[in-house]
């Protein structure tokens, strides 16, 4: 397959003002019909209306009991991203915690930590970060990650926050006509647009057979909550199947813009040994690249996921 590595990425196209609807938002955190229930295994402090909560009273270095694992999973589904402070854990303990949700995946496109299952991000002025784009991890794979566990090893004194967006809220707040328009549509996801910013053309070309483009539904049904979420992102989604390029680009710009709405977001200020655990099926995230010339070091493990579908 021939790829034009110099082609301008779609993410740089201007987003029209009318793509974000003004006025009140529908801020529904739980699936329709779900009841609020207290948490008994830990303390939970919400950080946003629909997404993000800080967990107290859990030591990630210790094995999880069945009741604790079940309640953490419920919190993950309800809040989409969970934060744990002061977790001085080893990479092996980080992997063990993540394995409570399934086998871990590896990503040969990214730098490794102490094992193939750990990705180590070390960013400074000499090695700038390129994560500052809204995205869902590895949607260029047939089975994108279920979730990720990220630990900050070294935190800059200023900046370096990460933001997450609730893509179910983003879907809920689309105009009814747009929701109807995108039902049943599929989009192509490709690793090239996301990696061409910092990778050589030879490296990209050598990985084409290992990571060919894949199709996913534009609207994904969450396999556990049943909620519909927007499942396109500007890092990896290139076009919508069956639409001409201009129409596909216009529609994708509108859908990409939904992650930019503050009401759907949470922003987390990292501290050393803080951990974030997020549901990759329900969110997008954005690493804020505002800390140069200081250094930011993070280690991440990702949990293998399943094939997206629209039910």
Automatic annotation (TrEMBL):
Keywords: Dioxygenase, Iron, Metal-binding, Oxidoreductase. Residues 45-299 form the TauD/TfdA-like domain. InterPro entries: AtsK-like (IPR051323), TauD-like_sf (IPR042098), TauD/TfdA-like (IPR003819). Pfam families: TauD. One of its GO terms (molecular function) is dioxygenase activity. Gene3D superfamilies: Clavaminate synthase-like. It comes from the Bacteria. Belongs to the TfdA dioxygenase family. This is Taurine dioxygenase. It comes from Amycolatopsis acididurans.
């Amino acid at each position: 397959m021939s790829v034009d590595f110099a082609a301008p990425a779609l993410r740089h196209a201007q987003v029209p003002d009318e793509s974000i609807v003004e006025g009140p938002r529908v801020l529904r955190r739980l699936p329709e019909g779900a009841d609020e229930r207290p948490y008994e295994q830990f303390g939970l402090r919400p950080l946003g209306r629909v997404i993000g909560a800080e967990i107290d009273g859990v030591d990630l270095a210790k094995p999880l009991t069945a009741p604790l694992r079940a309640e953490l999973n419920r919190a993950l589904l309800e809040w989409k991203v969970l934060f744990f402070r002061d977790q001085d854990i080893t990479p092996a303990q980080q992997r063990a915690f993540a394995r409570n949700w399934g086998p871990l995946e590896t990503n040969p496109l990214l730098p490794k930590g102490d094992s193939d299952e750990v990705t180590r991000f070390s960013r400074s002025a000499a090695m700038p970060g390129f994560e500052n784009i809204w995205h869902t991890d590895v949607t260029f794979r047939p089975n994108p990650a279920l979730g990720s566990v990220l630990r900050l090893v070294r935190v800059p004194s200023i900046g370096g926050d990460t933001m997450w967006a609730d893509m179910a809220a983003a879907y809920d707040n689309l105009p009814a006509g747009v929701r109807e328009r995108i039902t049943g549509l599929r989009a192509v996801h490709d690793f090239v647009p996301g990696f061409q910013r910092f990778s050589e053309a030879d490296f990209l070309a050598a990985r084409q057979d290992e990571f060919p483009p894949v199709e996913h539904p534009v609207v994904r049904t969450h396999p556990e909550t049943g909620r519909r979420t927007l499942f396109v992102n500007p890092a990896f989604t290139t076009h919508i199947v069956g639409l001409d390029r201009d129409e596909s680009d216009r529609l994708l710009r509108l859908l990409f813009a939904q992650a930019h709405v503050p009401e759907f977001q949470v922003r987390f200020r990292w501290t050393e040994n803080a951990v974030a655990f997020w549901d990759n099926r329900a969110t997008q995230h954005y690493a804020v690249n505002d800390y140069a010339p200081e250094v930011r070091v993070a280690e991440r493990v990702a949990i293998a996921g399943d094939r997206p579908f629209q039910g």
